[in-house]
Write a structure and sequence with these properties.
The structure holds 3 protein chains of 3 kinds.
Chain A (H helix, E strand, L loop, with lengths): L15 H7 L5 H33 L7 H8 L1 H34 L5 H13 L2 H12 L10 H29 L3 H10 L4 H12 L1 H17 L2 H5 L5 H11 L3 H23 L12
Chain B lengths: L1 H6 L5 H21 L11 H6 L2 H34 L4 H14 L5 H11 L4 H8 L15 H25 L3 H9 L4 H29 L3 H7 L6 H10 L6 H32 L2
Helix pairs in contact in B: 4-8, 4-10, 5-8, 6-11, 8-10, 9-10, 10-13, 12-13
Chain C lengths: L1 H26 L20 H10 L1 E5 L8 H12 L2 E5 L5 H10 L11 E5 L2 H7 L3 E2 L20 E14 L22 E3 L7 H13 L8 H12 L3 E5 L2 H5 L5 E5 H11 L5 E4 L7 E9 L5 H11 L2 H9 L3 E2 L2 H7 L4 H6 L11 H19 L5
The chains are: A mainly alpha, B mainly alpha, C alpha/beta.
């Protein structure tokens, strides 16, 4: 396939640069044919994603009077309170997770590369343990003894944050790791140190800003997990959104459809906003994993 | 020198302490519990039960569903991601897809199960349209959403976006220059794919497929919401034992979980190995 | 440094906006149904000393009490209004097994995860007593509870019973089934479901048993029930999922086997959208009783006792009656004239209902839960 711009036969890779400049224009016809295929694939994907949401929406409209499923939901104080609780827990989880992960990944990369395998293994453990067992273990461990966290509301919420932080490890670590890989950690650190910065200053003022996009990616995945999570929140008896969803799913007919759509839309909007904040950077937010 | 060595561990201490407190300790309960019987005495019976015919079937079901959705998710996720990244589609579509995928990959449990029941359930929107408009009666032909196939269709909803998210950076890393260089050396698109793109993409593709597999294998909420515990897969079997099923045997539940842990650990191990291969090319 | 500040400010702004957004969503209509706290006839006065002790504890932790089940919503809010106690409601979707499990898991835990009181199927009571999970307590109206419905030591005590019925979505099902054997007809293909998991849920186990009684079984023989469901499954009429209100309303499982009180409560809440008909089957009328008990590890034992006093007072019993449940002191209240006449009139005709004894239940539960998987094999394939 020769380029339109009068291609000169290329011999060997010594003329790579020439090839690049000459091949800048791809023949228009071939591009649009290929593109049609991709459009079809894209639209098929969109259809698969949208149709179940649309069906849910149509079902939610069957409540009478028109739109009752939505007004009932928004009028229900528990909807707002559980969503807010989960959101706040999510934000705190993100902060804790970042606070633990960034120094750790940074340290591993800089100082103890040997530990990398172990750290990675530990961060992948949450994938392996079913949440129902994790929460049972947590309750058994922390309902008495040196750290009776479950005995109080605030302690239980703290335990919830801890559990969610653990669940976020795989995503956060990979996000931070990918981010660190794209910046020259060694030079940045040395430069900062030569300017007299201490560790905290380095992390806070130099490393963290450069990780902005990766952190946002990890943050929004974590947030999505927290808001939808059910098992751990139920067994720790927390007023979170997941249990609320299951509750009305069990007892009401049309409201569950409305609630899941609203939460889907809100989560999407929140992530869109986060994406907007992270705009203007080359790396796509999808690079989380 | 010794002091420096110790100090070099300081940075990772918070992580290890936190992991120990909230991850290792609960896991220990799991491990220890799998070796105890109902009365609390040590036993290997739970593990022996794992080899029973019923349990083997349970695991096979889980493995089958996970493998099918992993492969399907891998193929279509790759195609979809490629479409928005290198397929010549407008740039905003990529952003929209990525954001949506972030949400959809975690859309699971009750809302997802219900959404599909509303779509392809017995009186779902799509079922009705197919029947009344196109004359295709899927239920008449024997399909039901309450089946392994039905569950796979539902699982696909979070497998697909997960794949899109994971493979996007790899596709990003597929430098346009390589393609153009290949073309200038006379390669056809097929050759480009066969000799340049696919070999580079093979490790991340395989790695992602494995991750998808692990993701499906560990899923519980959606399966439970859709089938109410009558589907025979490991995660549901475990929760039945733990939740106080009349056939209640906690130790067996833990042993089942340990079996899951082994399968997942192997998967994650393979994924990690493949990740290293990926990194080499897509730095 | 300024970039960091800008980012931080932007982040803070985002959080505030989102939080405000969510808060706005919740602030509308905050006055949720404190169902005109039944200051109705026979309002309950809490016994003074117990009230003081309970107030010291401050909270009552309940578990697995959906608000639409036997009108628990009104019972809970009336109780809270009369005593000023805070309510901590756990796992409303749980089954009897989950409640027992919650006590076991939280033995050492005095926190909000541990339930004070449980409401479980009759068969779960004696086992819980043997396992040492519940404590004795005899309410002030103890003597008016029939002897067959309580543990002599006061460990557990019957609270209400209902009869199994068919909850039918008449928008989808034009020809309403009248009896168990009707369910096997081909016109109901893919339409019949239980309301729970027959290896865990009392309601579902009872459903299987009742079907058996109508087709050749009896209170002493539950095996025909398994055969019935095996046939139902083979005919393709049975949908092996846990059917909820939404499943009936959407038409997915338009025939659900549930207690009369649940079916009637659904009928009320759906308000004709879609229309629901509750059919008590002609034969095989099976009554199931639930029992109350206080956890032996209850973090708030006095609040628990106070709650029991409320439930077994006329006011509490009438609250259940309004939820279409037959409260256990029904006969005594009818005699004393304290029963809520309006609610009484709404009860469906359930003449000929058989109520099993504890031994029969234990035996039948055993047969059904152990035989379900192998004999009926109605798993999702």
């Amino acid at each position: 396939m020769s380029s339109v711009g009068g291609g000169t036969p290329i011999t060997g890779d010594a003329t790579m640069r020439q090839a690049l400049s000459q091949s800048a224009t791809v023949p228009r016809r071939r591009r649009s044919l290929g593109t049609i295929v991709w459009w079809v694939i894209f639209l098929a994907g969109v259809a698969y994603f949208v149709i179940p949401l649309w069906s849910t929406f149509m079902f939610s409209l069957q409540a009478e009077p028109f739109g009752a499923a939505y007004t009932n939901t928004l009028d229900d104080p528990q909807f707002g309170s559980t969503l807010l609780y989960s959101f706040v827990v999510g934000v705190i989880t993100v902060i804790v997770s970042i606070a633990i992960m960034v120094p750790t990944a940074f340290w591993v990369r800089l100082r103890v590369p040997r530990l990398r395998r172990i750290v990675e293994f530990v961060t992948l453990l949450p994938f392996v343990i079913p949440p129902v067992l994790l929460v049972f273990g947590l309750i058994r461990s922390y309902s008495s003894g040196p750290l009776p966290l479950t005995n109080t509301d605030i302690g239980s919420s703290a335990l919830l944050v801890a559990a969610y932080t653990v669940l976020s490890f795989p995503y956060m670590y990979r996000a931070v790791d990918v981010g660190l890989r794209s910046i020259d950690v060694q030079s940045l650190t040395e430069a900062s140190q030569s300017l007299g910065a201490g560790w905290f200053r380095i992390l806070w003022s130099v490393i963290l800003p450069n990780l902005r996009v990766s952190l946002l990616a990890g943050a929004f995945l974590t947030l999505a997990i927290v808001i939808g999570e059910y098992t751990i929140a139920t067994f720790l008896a927390r007023p979170a959104f997941g249990p609320y969803l299951a509750l009305i799913g069990g007892n009401k007919a049309y409201e569950p459809a409305a609630v899941s759509l609203i939460s889907f839309a809100l989560t999407w909007a929140a992530m869109g906003v986060i994406q907007y904040i992270g705009r203007g950077t080359r790396i796509s937010v999808a690079g989380a994993r | 020198m010794g002091r420096r060595a110790i100090l070099s561990w300081v940075g990772v201490v918070p992580f290890f302490v936190f992991s120990f407190l909230f991850l290792i300790v609960p896991t220990l309960y799991l491990v220890v519990g799998s070796f105890l019987d109902k009365a609390g005495a040590p036993t290997l019976q739970n593990y022996r039960d794992l080899l029973g015919e019923q349990t083997i079937r349970t695991y096979m079901n889980g493995l089958e569903i996970s493998a099918v959705t992993a492969i399907a998710g891998c193929v279509f996720g790759f195609l979809l991601a490629y479409a928005v990244i290198l397929g010549g589609l407008p740039r905003p579509l990529r952003t929209a897809l990525m954001t949506f995928s972030g949400v959809a990959s975690n859309f699971a449990g009750v809302p997802l199960a219900f959404a599909f029941v509303f779509t392809i359930g017995r009186v779902g929107l799509a079922t009705v349209i197919l029947r009344d408009v196109f004359g295709i009666d899927i239920y008449g032909a024997g399909f039901t959403i309450y089946s392994k196939i039905g569950l796979e269709v539902v699982y696909f909803y979070f497998q697909l976006p997960l794949m899109v998210l994971i493979i996007a950076p790899a596709i990003d890393g597929l430098k346009q220059e390589w393609r153009e260089a290949a073309e200038n050396m006379g390669a056809t698109p097929a050759q480009y794919w066969r000799m340049v793109a696919l070999p580079i993409l093979a490790p991340p593709l395989l790695g992602s497929a494995i991750l998808l597999f692990a993701n499906a294998f560990g899923a519980q909420a959606t399966a439970f919401a859709l089938t109410g515990g009558s589907l025979d897969i490991p995660t549901i079997a475990i929760s039945r034992q733990i939740r106080g099923d009349v056939l209640f045997n906690e130790g067996l539940g833990y042993a089942l979980a340990m079996g899951m842990v082994v399968i997942m650990a192997v998967s994650i191990g393979l994924y990690t190995v493949l990740q290293r291969r990926t990194e080499r090319w897509l730095r | 440094m300024s970039t960091m500040q800008r980012t931080a400010t932007r982040r803070a702004g985002l959080l505030t906006v989102t939080a405000l957004l969510f808060a706005a969503c919740s602030s509308s209509g905050g006055g949720a149904a404190t169902a005109g706290a039944s200051a109705a006839a026979g309002a309950w006065t809490p016994p003074a000393d117990l009230l003081t002790a309970a107030k010291g504890e401050g909270t009552l932790s309940t578990i697995a009490l959906p608000h639409s089940w036997c009108n628990y919503g009104e019972a809970l809010s009336s109780f809270a209004a009369a005593t000023g106690l805070k309510l901590n409601e756990l796992n409303p979707d749980g089954g009897s097994g989950d409640e027992i499990n919650a006590i076991k898991t939280n033995k050492d835990n005095k926190g909000p995860q541990a339930p004070d009181v449980i409401d479980v199927g009759l068969s779960f009571g004696p086992q819980a007593k043997t396992d040492g999970l519940i404590q004795n307590y005899k309410v002030s109206t103890w003597d008016t509870i029939p002897d067959t419905a309580k543990d002599p030591d006061g460990a557990w005590y019957g609270d209400y019973y209902g009869v199994l019925a068919f909850e039918v979505n008449t928008k989808v099902v034009k020809n309403v089934p009248a009896d168990w054997s009707d369910l096997l007809k081909p016109e109901y293909k893919g339409q019949v479901a239980l309301a729970g998991d027959p290896t865990v849920s009392n309601q579902a186990i009872s459903g299987v048993w009742a079907a058996g009684i109508a087709t050749g079984g009896s209170l002493d023989d539950a095996a025909p029930g398994l055969k019935f469901f095996k046939d139902l499954n083979a005919a393709g009429n049975f949908v092996p999922i846990i059917s909820k209100t939404a499943n009936v309303a959407s038409g997915e499982t338009p025939i659900r086997i549930a207690w009369t009180y649940n079916a009637l409560a659904d009928k009320d809440s759906l308000k004709g959208n879609p229309p629901i008909e509750v059919v008590v089957p002609k034969t095989g009328r099976f009554g199931g009783m639930y029992v109350q008990a206080i956890s032996a590890y209850a973090p708030h034992p006095n609040a628990a006792k106070l709650w029991m006093e409320y439930l077994y007072s006329d006011a509490g019993q009438n609250a259940w009656l309004k939820g279409y449940c037959n409260p256990i002191r029904y006969d005594a209240m009818v005699k004393a004239g304290t029963v809520d006449k309006a609610a009484q009139a709404k009860l469906p005709d359930t003449a000929g209902t058989q109520l099993p004894t504890l031994d029969q239940i234990t035996k039948a539960s055993d047969v059904i839960t152990k035989g379900w998987a192998s004999q009926v094999g109605a798993t999702v394939k």
